[in-house]
Design brief:
Blueprint lengths: L30 H9 L3 H7 L1 H18 L6 H16 L5 H22 L2 H17 L6 H20 L2 H17 L7 H16 L6 H11 L9 H20 L2 H15 L9 H19 L2 H17 L6 H17 L5 H17 L9 H14 L3 H17 L7 H19 L2 H17 L5 H21 L2 H15 L6 H17 L11 H13 L7 H14 L5 H17 L9 H18 L2 H17 L7 H19 L6 H11 L6 H14 L5 H16 L5 H7 L7 H11 L3 H11 L2 H8 L5 H6 L1 H20 L7 H26 L13 H4 L8 E5 L5 E6 L6 E5 L4 H16 L4 H25 L7 E6 L21 H4 L1 E4 L17 E2 L6 E5 L12 H11 L4 E4 L5 H10 L2 E5 L1 E3 L9 E3 L4 E3 H6 L7 E5 L17 H7 L4 E5 L7 H15 L14 E2 L4 H14 L4 H4 L2 E5 L1
Parallel strand pairs: 1-4, 4-5, 7-8, 7-9, 9-13, 13-14
Antiparallel strand pairs: 1-2, 2-3, 6-15, 10-11, 11-12, 14-16
Helix pairs in contact: 2-3, 3-4, 4-5, 5-6, 5-7, 6-7, 7-8, 8-9, 9-10, 10-11, 11-12, 12-13, 13-14, 13-15, 14-15, 15-16, 15-17, 16-17, 17-18, 17-19, 18-19, 19-20, 19-21, 20-21, 20-39, 21-22, 21-23, 22-23, 24-25, 25-26, 26-27, 27-28, 28-29, 29-30, 29-31, 30-31, 31-32, 32-34, 34-35, 38-39, ...
Length: 1202
């Protein structure tokens, strides 16, 4: 760069207007003006020609003296001075010295006011007038250099406030001109000192260092220093370190080369004993190691080791360089030369760095990123232990608390802490670590420069954590955001090939995850094209082999390619190739053995060569032996070893069963460092391979883990979405396995544990606590508080339309509550008599559900089904149903659904009811008679699968002279046995005619966007005739808020309105009220302590979720969960005109039944009991049948509960 002359164009091109003055650039002076200028040689003559100018000039000088000399720094003073100088400028003669002095004075006033108010207009005006003063002053005038100094200060002041790179450039240029004018071209120390001062000032102000400008001016100044100049070594060191800093940020190879050259030259000026030698040697060693990463030149390593050892020998204990030098030395010796004994060096450096960081009170040391990176990664890579990560996390968290929010290194600290949380997740499998990692990455991104390399690295790390969270909780939004983050990183131009490779790996994982959850056969054509395009862009990237496997398998399946042998062989060769690579950065790991084992196992499945299985067992065994228990892939190694061993043993002897295989599976499913989801999947693999009676243990564990797996999500909606990851017939298969082994009690427990999972989880939040409160009131209160918060979060939260931040805040809150809740439960378990608190109920407790009549569990499974009859005493009874299987029930369900949707074919409906009778209900009725259950008794149906959505209660021969089920028994339904067991705090309030229950009737013939219902008002009127004390909410009085409030005080409720089932979001199913819908979630959120009985005279109120029928998610179930022990509902759309007659018959029976409980009513007084609802519905539907109401209309009504 050539040095500027005094008139170089570094100044602003035009003055900036200011409201305090109007400046007019004078035209070229006339001849007369020139004569006047030449003749005015004294102030007396000047005052005669320009009297006004001199007045303003003197006034401006006095005010400025008052401002500066007297120390009267009052803004009004400087404002008045500016007015005088502005007037002086307007009347100024065309004399260069005078014009320059007036501009200089005006500039000084604007600059002073800028220092007071920090108004950018003053800064602009100050620079403009300084520039004009400089242009007007004659060359060689003594004030020329003073003006240039003031202009430099003005540029610096504006740069400090606004951060303009252009101002920084101009300040440096002015300073260089100043040096040249002072004749100091041979002595650039002034410029170097100015650059150092500017650098220090930027750091003090917390701003980003302008590396480009610093490097430019250091580089331009260096040639001015001869080899023997004292400043040359200092400039070489500064230029080398700045170049290394920019290389770290941008990854430019030319910066690294310049750093090595400058630092190497710097060392030539000092001997190894010189105190300046070790710090520069350390930086040079780091640069040499970086260059080796890209070039692999062993000479760089040798030279780096030499410099590192010099640094170690030259620095005393406690010096900040020693930990880093030890770090680099241990890395070089172990990774590059295989000297594993040097791990002792690593341990020494660990102690040094921990001690150093524990003593600091500020995060200044974080500016050396190598130190923190080492603290987190180096020790972990040498000895992969979660303990080391936890120590690092705790220390980093402490430093973060000390780090001001404005600190320039805070974003780096957050990013590194996020990496620590993410790596801990890989060990523990907990969702909390992932959520903490995502939170750290998001905050770091908000603080870092969006175009910088640090920002892109953190964005890639965020994508990794989002992808990992998707694997645990299956939020589709996580996978979508992770894909977008990885693509955004790859779309940017930067010089770090390592980051680009990592981003490609991350994107490959995202694409693979979206390619179908159940294997390559699920990959669609569009996704195949995306994979093809992705791999075409990176054809030589060996780290994308996992995606190539998916591509190859998917292509083979989609195209019908039968050359599976070639594919399997290719995968084995890929795995062997990875193991053969001899690279400093890809050392042999247990996972290489694991991947080879997977490939060999796949090749066995294609070729059937038992040798492949044998070698795969050896690979998996080696991986298990070499991996610590908290290794992220340890569980996968255990499971694949056990599974492959089981396949191998089965080939040798199908009857052989090795206990060691069972032990491996048990070890895997009990691995606490793995996530519940991974352990659950391990259980499923165990179930497939287990053949002995231990299979029941595998099923028991799988049901427990399925419950924990679903609980990783906070809301009911998101838990419902996660159910798709659980095999739909898990509990049914478990029960069938227990039945085959003659263990009917365990079969009942399995069916109870694996069905209505979401209701069971919510029920724990409302567990009765009276007994606990008597023993430990503090624990009871704490459990109640946490349970209420957990329930509120579960029923209120939703992922629909929520921002990523709000979802993550909700997830973190849920995890904190969940951990606290589980700790309280553990404390309760320690109390005497509470060891089974909230545990899965035993058969002994479950059979209490049959206190008022037998409960019939119908297990639909595969090609063979069974019924188990549970009575209040005696053993459970088995009814084999060998003539019906799952496909038969699915066919019946589809036929039933089609029949009730269109014009009803009574013949088809009758055929369906006959099939139910012949294959299921008839054999069960026969068994009931054998058990001595008299006709007219109540029975409860607890069906599984799609049988739960078929009208078992109406089954029968449906022929003349033949009795159907309604003629023999009074049927009710229940989703679980537990829901029939009254809680310990339940008090059955029996009402009478003189003391009737408070009945709420919610009647809405009209609702927004719904057709009018003609019979609703008549239904309400008939109910009032039978129950005069009933409260009717209709029209404006039956708005959403009023209904919720009234439910609190009315133990009985009757809805007669529109009802709808939402098949995609069953928790949005609702009653349509006058103003807005009353949803299923609204009902859950309303705690109803007095609830007893509900009649839901609306459509679809007892129709479950056809995708997950065992969950029984419908309005009737929600009311039952909310405390209504007895509920009448509908299986499908009801006929409006049936409502009045049916309701009238039901309430006639319930309000006028003759007293039958001693002491509860008078001799002729009716007892009003919600437990009579099932019999009342039976009587009412019989009345409809007698009146000729068609079959499809009366079988629609069902009773649920007690």
């Amino acid at each position: 760069m050539s040095h500027s002359s005094p008139r170089d164009p570094i100044l602003p091109h035009s003055p900036v207007s200011d409201p305090n003055y109007v400046y007019v650039q004078p035209d070229s002076p006339s001849a007369a003006g020139a004569d006047v200028t030449q003749s005015c040689t004294s102030q007396r003559e000047l005052s005669k020609i320009y009297p006004n100018f001199l007045i303003f000039f003197d006034a401006g000088q006095r005010l400025m003296s008052q401002y500066f000399d007297a120390g009267c720094h009052i803004k009004q003073t400087i404002d008045n001075a500016m007015i005088c100088w502005g007037a002086a400028l307007l009347t100024c003669p065309l004399v260069p010295d005078l014009s320059s002095q007036v501009h200089l004075s005006l500039a000084m006033c604007h600059h002073q006011r800028y220092l007071l108010d920090r108004n950018s207009k003053d800064a602009d005006a100050a620079i403009t007038h300084f520039s004009l003063a400089y242009l007007c002053v004659p060359s060689g005038n003594p004030s020329e250099l003073e003006i240039l100094k003031q202009l430099t200060n003005a540029f610096v002041a504006r740069h400090e406030k606004e951060g303009s790179v252009q101002d920084f450039h101009r300040a440096i240029q002015c300073h260089m001109i100043l040096n040249s004018r002072e004749g100091k071209l041979d002595h650039p120390s002034t410029i170097r000192g100015f650059i150092e001062a500017m650098l220090d000032k930027q750091v003090e102000n917390g701003g980003d260092i302008d590396l480009d400008s610093m490097l430019l001016y250091c580089g331009d100044t260096l040639p001015l220093c001869p080899d023997n100049d004292a400043d040359r070594p200092l400039l070489l060191a500064r230029l080398g370190k700045l170049s290394a800093d920019r290389y770290q940020g941008l990854g430019r190879p030319e910066d690294l080369e310049r750093a090595i050259q400058c630092l190497g030259n710097r060392l030539e000026y000092c001997s190894e004993g010189d105190p300046n030698y070790p710090p520069n040697a350390y930086y040079l060693a780091w640069c040499l190691l970086e260059r080796h990463k890209h070039r692999g030149n062993k000479d760089d390593l040798d030279e780096a080791i030499r410099h590192i050892k010099v640094s170690l020998e030259s620095h005393p204990e406690g010096h900040w360089v020693r930990p880093h030098a030890l770090h680099h030395l241990s890395t070089v010796l172990e990774v590059h030369y295989g000297q594993e004994s040097e791990i002792e060096i690593v341990q020494i450096s660990i102690q040094l760095i921990l001690g150093l960081l524990s003593l600091v009170d500020s995060p200044d040391l974080l500016e050396d990123e190598v130190m923190v990176e080492y603290l987190l990664l180096n020790r972990y890579y040498h000895q992969p232990s979660a303990q080391y990560l936890e120590e690092s996390r705790n220390l980093l968290s402490t430093l973060l608390q000390q780090c001001p929010t404005t600190h320039p290194q805070r974003h780096n600290l957050l990013s590194i802490l996020g990496i620590c949380h993410h790596t801990l997740h890989q060990h523990h499998g907990g969702i909390q670590e992932l959520e903490d990692a995502i939170h750290c990455f998001r905050e770091s991104l908000s603080l870092s420069d969006h175009g910088g390399l640090d920002h892109l690295r953190t964005l890639k790390n965020l994508a990794d954590s989002l992808c990992a969270r998707y694997a645990v909780v299956k939020y589709p939004q996580d996978l979508e955001e992770a894909t977008q983050c990885a693509k955004h990183v790859l779309s940017k131009e930067f010089h770090s090939e390592i980051l680009r490779l990592d981003a490609r790996r991350t994107l490959a994982l995202c694409i693979a995850a979206t390619s179908g959850r159940f294997g390559p056969s699920e990959i669609g054509l569009e996704k195949m094209e995306e994979i093809e395009e992705f791999l075409t862009q990176y054809p030589s990237d060996e780290d994308l082999d996992s995606l190539r496997v998916i591509q190859s398998v998917a292509r083979s399946i989609n195209q019908g390619d039968v050359s599976q042998t070639d594919l399997a062989e290719e995968l084995v060769q890929i795995a062997r190739h990875h193991m053969s690579i001899d690279s400093p950065y890809t050392p042999m790991t247990p996972m290489d053995k694991y991947r080879l084992g997977e490939a060999l196992r796949l090749r066995y499945q294609v070729d059937g060569d038992i040798k492949d299985l044998s070698e795969a067992i050896q690979c998996f065994s080696a991986a298990v032996q070499c991996s610590p228990p908290d290794h992220p892939q340890f569980l996968a190694c255990l499971v694949d070893l056990a599974s492959t061993h089981a396949d191998y043993d089965h080939l040798l002897d199908p009857s052989l069963r090795c206990e060691s295989i069972t032990a491996l599976f048990k070890k895997a499913v009990d691995l606490q460092t793995a996530s519940a989801g991974d352990r659950f999947n391990a259980c499923l693999e165990w179930i497939q391979k287990e053949k002995s009676d231990v299979l029941l243990d595998a099923y028991q564990k799988s049901l427990e883990l399925a419950d924990r797996f679903v609980l990783v999500r906070s809301s009911l909606k998101s838990r419902h979405d996660l159910l798709s990851s659980i095999p739909p017939f898990l509990s049914s298969d478990a029960a069938r396995s227990a039945i085959l082994r003659g263990n009917l009690e365990k079969a009942v427990e399995f069916l109870e544990q694996g069905r209505s999972l979401l209701w069971s989880q919510m029920g724990r939040y409302r567990a009765p606590l009276q007994k606990l409160h008597d023993i430990s009131p503090d624990l009871a209160d704490e459990f109640t508080k946490l349970s209420q918060e957990m329930e509120q979060l579960a029923s209120f939260s939703s992922t629909d339309g929520a921002s990523h931040q709000s979802m993550e805040d909700e997830a973190r809150k849920y995890r904190r509550l969940s951990d606290a809740w589980e700790r309280v439960v553990e404390e309760i378990h320690k109390l005497e008599g509470f060891s089974d608190f909230l545990s899965a109920p035993s058969y002994f407790n479950l059979k209490r559900a049959a206190a008022d009549g037998p409960v019939i569990l119908v297990n639909i499974n595969g090609i063979h089904s069974d019924a188990i009859i549970v009575c209040k005493s005696g053993d459970p009874s088995l009814v084999p149903l060998s003539e019906v299987g799952l496909l038969d029930i699915v066919r019946l369900y589809n036929e039933f659904t089609l029949t009730i949707r269109g014009p009803v074919s009574r013949q088809k409906l009758t055929t369906i009811l006959r099939c139910l009778w012949d294959d299921i209900v008839g054999p069960i009725v026969q068994k009931l008679q054998e058990l001595g259950i008299p006709h007219g008794s109540r029975i409860w149906w607890c069906p599984t699968s799609w049988l739960a959505m078929l009208p078992l209660h109406a089954a029968g021969p449906h022929r003349k002279s033949c009795k159907n089920l309604p003629d023999l028994y009074i049927s009710s339904y229940t989703s679980t046995l537990s829901s029939l067991i009254p809680p310990h705090t339940h008090k059955a309030n029996h009402y009478s005619t003189s003391n009737p229950p408070k009945l709420l009737v919610v009647a809405h013939p009209e609702a927004p966007k719904q057709p009018p219902l003609s019979w609703v008002r008549e239904e309400a009127q008939r109910i009032q005739q039978v129950a005069p004390s009933a409260t009717v909410l209709e029209g404006d009085s039956g708005v959403h808020r009023a209904v919720i409030d009234s439910l609190q005080t009315h133990p009985w409720v009757h809805f007669t309105c529109h009802g709808s089932q939402n098949p995609r979001q069953p928790y949005e199913s609702c009653f349509h009220l006058h103003d807005k819908p009353l949803t299923l979630l609204d009902i859950l959120q309303a705690r109803l302590p007095n609830a007893q009985y509900a009649f839901l005279s609306a459509c679809h109120t007892a129709r479950g979720d056809s995708n997950r029928p065992d969950e029984t998610i419908h309005l009737a179930a929600a009311l039952q969960f909310s405390g209504f022990r007895s509920v009448i509902g509908t299986m499908y759309a009801m006929a409006d005109k049936d409502g009045p007659a049916l309701a009238e018959e039901v309430y006639k029976f319930m309000f006028h039944k003759v007293g039958h409980l001693n002491g509860l009513a008078g001799k002729d007084e009716a007892v009003v009991d919600y437990r009579d609802a099932a019999e009342a519905l039976s009587v009412a539907t019989k009345a409809l049948r007698d009146r000729g109401v068609p079959l499809e209309r009366w079988i629609n009504f069902v009773h649920i509960g007690a």
